[in-house]
Amino acid sequence: MIMDYNKLLKNKLNQKFYLEETEIVAKNLIGKLFVKKNNSSLLIARITETEAYLDQNDESSHSCKGITNRNKSMFMIGGTLYVYFIYGVHFCVNIVTKDEGKGAAVLIRAAEPLAGIEIMKQNRQIHNFEKLLIGPGNFAKAFNFNKNDDGKSLLSNDIFISDDNYSTEIITTERIGISKSINLQLRFYDRNSKFVSKK
């Protein structure tokens, strides 16, 4: 798919979008375009599944016990990337929300590949298109995110999220794979997308 970089930039989300309540950001990110420049190429995917991690009353949030060297980016201002390593296996990409010092973020759980697909396949070392960006670790690996991306701004021209007014039907459920605060309804996905980890 050929997408106009200048149009993507024009429709880039501004910081105000990320300063909303975390649940609102997580829901509103569904259907948006995640864009990353890869040298002369663009990696683009439509976000299909997210999870919110709150700054209060959420024991599964990394921020629940305060600032550490690992989670300090989570306490930066909304629109910052919080990238962490988990299980000694893969990275996860999160989008910080709210004001500086709060400690809230949205995990990208899945997306639909739109551009730069061959690069994503090389990064993942798989050929299955439908499974390319399903699961937070797979999303991070396909986009080649690592700890060096932790703390970067989504207001840049190299990594950002763009809005093309895509229509979605959003479903809300409990989050997946956690053991605390399990009843919170903080997972969101597009009912009409096949690029979702679990329906």
3D structure, described in words:
With 199 residues, the protein is an alpha+beta fold. It has one domain (5-165, 175-187): 3-methyladenine DNA Glycosylase, Chain A. The protein contains five helices and eight strands; from the N terminus they run αααβββββααβββ. Strands 1, 2, 3, 4, 5, 6, 7 and 8 form an eight-stranded antiparallel β-sheet that branches. The longest helix has 8 residues, at 117-124. The protein starts with a helix and ends in a 9-residue tail after the last strand. The mean pLDDT is 95.
Number of strands: 8
**CATH top-level class:** Alpha Beta
Radius of gyration, taken over Cα atoms and rounded to an integer in Å: 15 Å
Task: Tell me the helix content.
Answer: 10-25%
How large is the share of residues in beta strands?
25-35%
State the CATH topology. 3-methyladenine DNA Glycosylase, Chain A
Q: Give the biggest sheet.
A: 8 strands, antiparallel
What's the CATH H-level homologous superfamily? Answer: Methylpurine-DNA glycosylase (MPG)
In terms of quaternary structure, the protein is: single chain
* Domain module tally: 1
Principal-axes geometry comes out as globular
User: How many distinct helices?
Assistant: 5
Q: How would you classify the helix and strand content by structural class?
A: alpha+beta
CATH architecture: Roll
**Contiguous uncertain segments of 5+ residues:** none
Series of H and E elements: HHHEEEEEHHEEE
Mean pLDDT: 95
For the termini, the CA-CA separation is 27 Å
